[in-house]
Amino acid sequence: MMKILVGEISSYKAIVIARFIKNNYKDVSIYTYDKKKRSNLIRSKYSDKHYYINPRNFENEIQTIIKEQNIDFFFPVINNSLSILFRDKQRYGNSLDYLGDMEPYNVLNNKLSLIKLANRFNIKTPKVYKRLEDAVIPFVVKPTNLSSAIGVKYVFNESDIGKVKEKTNKENIFIQEYVEGIGVGYSFYCDQGKIVHGYGHMRLAEYPVTGGSSTSRTYYHNNLMHELASTIVEELNYTGFAMFEFKLNSNNELILIEVNPRIWGSINQGLTESNVNYFEKILGKSTKDNNFKKKYINTYIAPLIYISLIKYIFKLEFRPVRIFLGNFLKNRSDVGMLRDPLGYLSTIFRKL
Known about the structure:
Layout: E1 2-7, H1 12-24, E2 28-34, E3 49-52, H2 58-69, E4 73-76, H3 79-86, H4 102-109, H5 111-120, E5 128-129, E6 139-143, E7 153-155, H6 158-167, E8 173-177, E9 182-191, E10 194-207, E11 213-219, H7 223-236, E12 240-248, E13 254-260, H8 267-271, H9 280-283, E14 299-300, H10 304-314, H11 319-326, E15 332-333, H12 341-349
Parallel strand pairs: 1-2, 1-4, 2-3, 14-15
Antiparallel strand pairs: 5-8, 6-7, 6-8, 9-10, 9-12, 10-11, 11-14, 12-13
Helix pairs in contact: 4-5
C-alpha cells in the first residue's frame, strides 16, 4: 500500500491531486492535513485519514505524521509551506526526495534572480524599475518571492500610485512593466533539468480581473514555451514541479512574467480527463486502465469563477462570459459541488 500525504486539503489544489491519485493508482492511501480547525468534519471524500495541524507547530507535527505513518510521498500545495519544508527536507524522511536542491528553487522563486537568468539567454521579460518614482504607468508592484497574485498591486493611473506607496514595504518589492496580452503558461515536472511531462494552458478568466490568478483556463500549445522553459531548468539542473507564466502579446511574442517552482493553481487543467500525468516520474505509471488520451476541456474554480464573471460584466468585458457560458456543459470545475460536496464546501470555508 502506497501512502501519500497531501495538504492543506481545504485547498482546491490538494483536492485535485488527491482525486487524481485515487483515480489513477490502485492500493494507495491518501493522508491529509489542514491548519483549519474542524477540517475533519468538512473535507474531501478523497481523504482516507485526516489530521488537524497546529500552525504554530507545523513542521514538527508534519514530521511526526510522516514518521509514524511511514508516508512514502508528501505533496504540500501551499506556497509558504513548501518554502519552509524545503529548508530541511531530510527531516521528512524520503517523502520529499522528488524535489532537488533548494538553490535552483530559490532562483526560480525570486523574481529578480529569474529575470537576470532569463536575460542571459535573451528571453524576453518585462522591464524592471528600481524605484516607484522611475516607473512608467502602467506597471505592477509585486513581492519578490510570492506567487498566486499575493500582494500584487497594479498601477494604471496616478491615484493608484498613492495607494501603492501607502501599503508597500520598499525592501521587499519588485516593480515591473505591465505587459498587455493573453496569459499563457507551461507546467511540468522536471527531473535534473529535463522536462518529463509538460502541458500548456491559456487563461480565459482571472480574479482579480485586473490581473490575478486564473479562474478559468483551456489547453494551449506553443513549442516555444517548452523551449524557453527547458533552457532555464537545464541551466539550473532543476528537479521539481514548475509552472512558467508568460504573456502572449499582440505581436505573438512570449514574455516571461514569472515562475512558480511548485504545484501550481491551474494543475487541474492538465490532469482533467487524463491529459497528462505529472506524477508518473514520482509514483510510476498509472495502475488503472488509462491511456492518457488528450481531451481538451476547459476547467475553472467554483464558486470564484462566478464572482470573476460578474466583475468582467461590470467592466463591460464580455468575452470571458461568452466563452464560459458557450462551453458550459463541457467545462469542468476543479472541485465539483455534486462530485465532492464536502470538499467543495471546505474550499469556501477556507476563505472565511
